[in-house]
Design a protein that fits this description.
Oligomer: single chain
Order of helices and strands: HHH
Strand content: under 5%
Helix content: 55-70%
Distance between the termini: 47 Å
Protein backbone atom coordinates (compact mmCIF):
# COMPACT_ATOMS: atom_id res chain seq x y z
CA UNK A 1 0.00 0.00 0.00
CA UNK A 2 2.82 2.39 0.78
CA UNK A 3 4.91 1.68 -2.31
CA UNK A 4 2.15 0.72 -4.77
CA UNK A 5 2.13 4.09 -6.49
CA UNK A 6 5.75 3.52 -7.56
CA UNK A 7 5.09 0.07 -9.05
CA UNK A 8 3.78 -0.44 -12.56
CA UNK A 9 2.56 -4.03 -12.20
CA UNK A 10 -1.18 -4.65 -12.77
CA UNK A 11 -1.95 -5.64 -9.17
CA UNK A 12 -0.40 -2.49 -7.71
CA UNK A 13 -2.16 -0.34 -10.27
CA UNK A 14 -5.56 -1.89 -9.51
CA UNK A 15 -5.07 -1.38 -5.77
CA UNK A 16 -4.02 2.23 -6.29
CA UNK A 17 -7.13 2.79 -8.44
CA UNK A 18 -9.35 1.23 -5.75
CA UNK A 19 -7.82 3.19 -2.87
CA UNK A 20 -9.42 6.62 -3.56
CA UNK A 21 -12.87 5.06 -4.07
CA UNK A 22 -12.92 2.70 -1.07
CA UNK A 23 -10.23 3.93 1.30
CA UNK A 24 -6.88 2.42 2.13
CA UNK A 25 -8.26 -0.14 4.60
CA UNK A 26 -10.66 -1.75 2.13
CA UNK A 27 -7.98 -1.63 -0.56
CA UNK A 28 -5.59 -3.44 1.80
CA UNK A 29 -8.19 -6.14 2.47
CA UNK A 30 -8.86 -6.47 -1.28
CA UNK A 31 -5.13 -6.90 -1.88
CA UNK A 32 -4.87 -9.54 0.85
CA UNK A 33 -7.87 -11.36 -0.65
CA UNK A 34 -6.33 -11.29 -4.12
CA UNK A 35 -3.00 -12.58 -2.80
CA UNK A 36 -4.76 -15.38 -0.91
CA UNK A 37 -6.67 -16.44 -4.05
CA UNK A 38 -3.47 -16.42 -6.12
CA UNK A 39 -1.60 -18.49 -3.53
CA UNK A 40 -4.51 -20.93 -3.20
CA UNK A 41 -4.59 -21.46 -6.98
CA UNK A 42 -0.82 -21.97 -7.08
CA UNK A 43 -0.87 -24.51 -4.25
CA UNK A 44 -3.90 -26.51 -5.39
CA UNK A 45 -2.88 -26.66 -9.06
CA UNK A 46 0.80 -27.27 -8.24
CA UNK A 47 1.99 -24.54 -10.57
CA UNK A 48 4.91 -22.17 -10.34
CA UNK A 49 4.42 -18.44 -9.98
CA UNK A 50 4.59 -16.40 -13.18
CA UNK A 51 4.51 -12.70 -12.29
CA UNK A 52 3.99 -11.70 -15.92
CA UNK A 53 0.91 -13.89 -16.39
CA UNK A 54 -2.14 -12.05 -17.68
CA UNK A 55 -5.38 -13.95 -17.30
CA UNK A 56 -8.06 -13.73 -19.93
CA UNK A 57 -11.71 -14.69 -20.07
CA UNK A 58 -12.22 -18.31 -21.24
CA UNK A 59 -13.46 -18.62 -24.79
CA UNK A 60 -16.56 -20.71 -25.56
CA UNK A 61 -16.02 -24.05 -27.31
CA UNK A 62 -15.90 -23.85 -31.09
CA UNK A 63 -19.00 -26.07 -31.45
CA UNK A 64 -21.05 -23.62 -29.35
CA UNK A 65 -20.16 -20.67 -31.59
CA UNK A 66 -21.38 -22.22 -34.86
Amino acid sequence: MLTGKHNLDPISQSVMALRPRSGWQKAAVALANKNARILWALMTQERTCNAGHASERPRPPISAVA
